[in-house]
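Re: the 162-residue chain
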Amino acid sequence: MKIGVCLKQVPATDTRIKINAEGTGIVTDEVKWEVNPYDEFALEAALLLKEAGKASEVVILTVGGADCEQRIKDGLARGADSAIRMDDAAFAGSDALGIARILAAAATKAEVGLVLCGKQAVDGDSSQVPGMMAELLNWAQVTDISNLELEGDTVTTHRAAG
C-alpha cells in the first residue's frame, strides 16, 4: 500500500512571532522554519511501516511555495520515496477546508491508500485539515492513535485510554 504523509512547514517552536503592519499575517524575515513536529511523527510511522515491508511507498504531500523545499528534502533524506508540493497563487489565503481539498486531490491523484497526518499543526492549532480530508476522500478517520498496524489493506489502530 502506498502511504501519503501530510507535512506542513511551520515557524520553529522557539521563534518569536511578530504580526505584520497590516495585521494580516506575520513578519517572516527572521522566522526559522521547520516541519510541524506532529507531522514528523506521522512521517516516522509511515517510514516504519515501509521498513517492515507493510507499505510499498511513502509520498510526502505538502502545500507551499519554494521556501518549503528544504523540509521536503529532509523528508526524502529520511526515507520518503517522493513528494508532491502543491503551489499556486490561487491557494494563497486558503482556509482549512481549502487546504484539505488541495491535499485530498493530491492524495487521490497519487493513488495513496492511507494518509497519515500529525494530530495538529503548531501554528494554527485547529486540527481541522485531517478530518476534512477524510470526509472529502470518503475515508474513515482515526485520531490520537498510539499504535498503527497495517496488514494488506487492513489498518488496525490503537489508542491509549485514560
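Helices lie at 37-51, 69-78, 96-110, 129-137.
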